[in-house]
């Protein structure tokens, strides 16, 4: 998963199962919440 946040790029690994469960597709908007070493991805 790669998220562009202004001039910054956030990269995180997701399982195929998580991508399918969230219904994520290339170009879809998503929100990333970062806490310490954890990244939570939500569809927006």
TrEMBL record:
Q: GO BP, one example?
A: molybdate ion transport
User: Which species does the entry assign this protein to?
Assistant: Streptomyces afghaniensis 772
Q: Which InterPro entries match?
A: Mo/tungstate-bd_C_term_dom, Mop_domain, Transp-assoc_OB_typ1
Q: Which Pfam families match?
A: TOBE
Q: Has keyword Nucleotide-binding?
A: no
Q: Which UniProt keywords apply?
A: Molybdenum
Q: Which domain of life is it from?
A: Bacteria
The leader peptide range reads none
Domain Mop intervals = 1-43
Record-linked PROSITE patterns: MOP
Spell out the protein name for this chain.
Mop domain-containing protein
